[in-house]
Design brief:
homodimer; 7-stranded mixed beta sheet; 14 strands; alpha+beta; Fructose-1,6-Bisphosphatase, Chain A, domain 1
Amino acid sequence: MTSNLKFTIDLAKRAGNLALSKMGKIQKITSKTDRRDVATDVDIKVEELIVEEIRKNFPHHNIIREEGQDIDNHSKDAWIIDPIDGTKYFAAGVKHFAVSIALWQKERPILGVVYQPGTDECWWAEKGGGAFLNNKKIKVSHLRTMADTIISVGGGGIANKSKKEQTEYLKVLNKIVPVCNRFRALGAGSLCLCYLAQGYLEAHISSPIRPAKIWDVAAGMIIAEEAGAKITNSKGKWPGRNTNDLIVTNGHIHQQLLKLLNKK
Amino acid sequence: MTSNLKFTIDLAKRAGNLALSKMGKIQKITSKTDRRDVATDVDIKVEELIVEEIRKNFPHHNIIREEGQDIDNHSKDAWIIDPIDGTKYFAAGVKHFAVSIALWQKERPILGVVYQPGTDECWWAEKGGGAFLNNKKIKVSHLRTMADTIISVGGGGIANKSKKEQTEYLKVLNKIVPVCNRFRALGAGSLCLCYLAQGYLEAHISSPIRPAKIWDVAAGMIIAEEAGAKITNSKGKWPGRNTNDLIVTNGHIHQQLLKLLNKK
């Protein structure tokens, strides 16, 4: 384990445990796009802790973050941070939320850590070093028959979207749901990618109209990849930081899924 | 707290911690209806522990259980047990699973306990006594505007179902998804009802073609009810143990949701 990874694991755990200690003690909720798209004072406090530590240790790196202003030092290295992925769960006192911290070099992640304080689980990966959950190596599932798979789809709930966008979203659901064994819509994209990395999900598809933000998935992407996952956009290309169109699978069903999603 | 409730909480915690201690050490997986509908040797061992304790303490009661044979003593009291709700999660090492134990008198629950060992959270309720999460009273959400709600739908993934059943399921999804703020498909029905009881979800709808079994929801139903939820079938009647058609809401959106689901 490199010192960068050790630093990131320690920081994610500190940040996650701070968030958990504040659960049920939220003092302020701010709505962003709608009444359920919220940030709490805890999101902001936890992000401050993470940013402060990164600035102290990596003063020349860029920082991309969910809540505050990004820091652009014209570096090829960027830390990408979500202090609380799953804020809606957190705000209701449900422990399905995680801290996500990743380091990217240009368009590729080189390390990622996701920590769920409510279960004390830490997933991590470094380029070329495999993926781990609490020190145990994890691997994607070996299933290759679509009818056996569990597939998750990102953020539905589209009451505030246009008719055209609603139709686009429902088209994806109506393609996926009938071909898989179970479909899931779990929220907290970071955890979806970790569940895929450890073999629970065979695929995760970002919503076409309420796509994952890069801070939701920046760490999960390398954790999934190092566990054997394949990650592309719907054209089969590496998505980079453009997560508007993101398809992650166990590899075995990737081509079948792309074909299905691209079918008119 | 009555002695029956204390007994049930202690038992659910013992059972849940036994399951958690066996995670990653499953020795045998048996498929039931398809490759993902599984029981492990751990489900069976945990159920045995629960049944043994109930028989010792309540020798004249009935027992309805997920894995083994039911016990019918012609009693009006029936214990309804799911040793591991969320076995697919459990089998993949994800801590999103729970023990569910309820006591029903004829067609009504009188106490229910759901314990998630991975987060050390215990939800419970007794008839008329309110609902609790780890000793803290919980209440359903107060939201009444459909476009603000989070709604979960039970067990999709319908590859093995007939075309007619697939269409029926998709009809429900296509009605729900466009009107809510977020939709969720989480698996583990017991936890869905607890999340509703604590205000994260505004509604949970059982799948019309892969409905919840009574052991998934028997405890969650009284926990939700005692937190203020409304529970009916699509005709607006108390469903009893017939969970093929089950709609649970925070009460405020119940009529709107029934109307929507009954629309041709």
